[in-house]
UniProtKB/TrEMBL annotation:
It comes from Paratractidigestivibacter faecalis. Keywords: ATP-binding, Cytoplasm, Kinase, Nucleotide-binding, Transferase. PANTHER family: ACETATE KINASE, BUTYRATE KINASE 1-RELATED. This is Probable butyrate kinase. Belongs to the acetokinase family. It is found in: Cytoplasm. SUPFAM superfamilies: Actin-like ATPase domain (SSF53067). The keyword Hydrolase does not apply. It catalyses: butanoate + ATP = butanoyl phosphate + ADP. One of its GO terms (molecular function) is butyrate kinase activity.
């Protein structure tokens, strides 16, 4: 642990790019000064061949929003962008250097996602005033234990894509509410929104969880979740393409495929009103979340200090009650509706600026590259 300095209300600007907008927030210490959702016209975004080509367009709109809100970049101590496009890496706060910037720009992980604009925008703004730029617990955070990586096929390993930023921040906050450090606790932490992540946290590391963009985990509003491999092969042999099947894993599965909507609130209301298809889909999703929570508790070997629920769907009190009824015997269930993504990015920068945490260096190499005993 680094030597901490005298506490100070560091001013941190955070940038979280999404599909059609970019969330921007300014924090003085833990206090949000302002947040703004900068909208981007879909017709304008469609003009760009790749995600990184959008940088000048998005940056100009963000700069205009900052000027409108009277933000002087020289008053900002650090800039944080949502990470994306990186190779698997341990969790933490990473300073944006040339390697990280290059990987986020070209999408080194092979996934084109607006999050990879985060480091680029943060770097561009920080460079103008000589301040550091960071990413915090990016989506490619991978702290799996060795046992979680193995499969029964030589050379095929499990990888992980989760809502790492919100999952870890929820765990950090809950540990603090218990008067303990995250590094001293064991939690099962869930993010339940358009995508659903269920993860095992063991003394400060996210040691297990699902590859939610690769076809693992519970069914979600926009994702199919885990599927029987033999049935997927039958699905392909029936004439469905690989690209179509991949989209079911990432964007068009779950409620979208079953019910024609990604609106979880609509599905919940339809289920309560007696729509049998909606009820079956909703109940299956809750069942699968609870089953995954049990699996993560087993991965931790029991002794779970809490089951933590975050994400937009956690505003649904019935959902929380159903999970608590099924899983409360494992550990106390606590709801944190919504998400802490902007707050989490600012908190990660503050930990480095305060000296409570050392900034990490992005190696540009995946944290895991196989087991020699199987790959030799």
């Amino acid at each position: 642990m680094a030597q901490t300095t005298e506490p100070r209300a560091w001013r941190v600007l955070v940038i979280n790019p999404g599909s059609t907008s970019t969330k921007v927030g300014l924090f003085d210490g833990e206090k949000p000064v302002f947040t703004v959702n900068v909208a981007h016209e879909a017709s304008e975004l469609a003009k760009f061949a790749g995600v990184s080509d959008q940088l000048p367009y998005r940056l100009s709109l963000i700069e205009a929003a900052l000027a409108e809100n009277g933000v002087d970049l020289a008053s900002v101590d650090a800039f944080v962008g949502r990470g994306g496009g990186l190779l698997p890496l341990p969790g933490g706060t990473y300073e944006v250097d040339d390697v990280l910037l290059d990987h986020s720009t070209r999408g080194a992980n092979g996934v084109q996602h607006p999050a990879q604009l985060g480091p680029q925008i943060a770097h561009a703004l920080a460079a103008r005033c000589g301040r550091p730029a960071f990413v915090v617990n990016p989506p490619d955070t991978d702290e799996l234990c060795d046992e979680a990586r193995m499969t029964g096929v030589r050379g095929v390993y499990r990888h992980v894509h989760l809502h790492a930023l919100n999952l870890k921040e929820t765990a950090i906050r809950h540990a603090a509410s218990m008067g303990r450090a995250y590094e001293d606790c064991r939690f099962v932490v869930c993010h339940i929104g358009g995508g659903i992540s269920v993860s095992a946290h063991d003394h400060g590391k996210m040691v297990d969880g699902a590859d939610i963009v690769g076809g693992e985990g519970p069914m979600a509003p926009t994702r199919a979740g885990a599927l029987p491999v033999a049935e997927v092969l039958n699905y392909l042999e029936a004439g469905h393409g690989v690209a179509e099947t991949r989209r079911l894993c990432m964007k068009t599965g779950g409620f979208v495929d079953l019910l024609g909507t990604s609106d979880a609130l609509e599905v919940s209301r339809r289920a309560e009103a007696g729509d049998e298809a909606a009820r079956r889909a909703w109940d299956a999703m809750v069942y699968q979340i609870c089953k995954e929570i049990g699996a993560m508790a087993a991965a931790l070997g029991g002794g779970v200090d809490g089951i933590l629920l975050g994400g937009g769907m956690v505003h649904n009190e019935g959902l929380v009650a159903d999970i608590a009824e099924r899983c409360g015997w494992i550990a106390p269930v606590t709801a944190y509706p919504g998400e802490f993504e902007l707050e989490a990015m600012a908190a990660g920068a503050r930990r480095v600026l305060n000296g409570a945490e050392l900034p990490r260096h992005y190696s540009g190499k995946p944290v895991f590259e196989g087991f020699p005993c199987f790959d030799a």
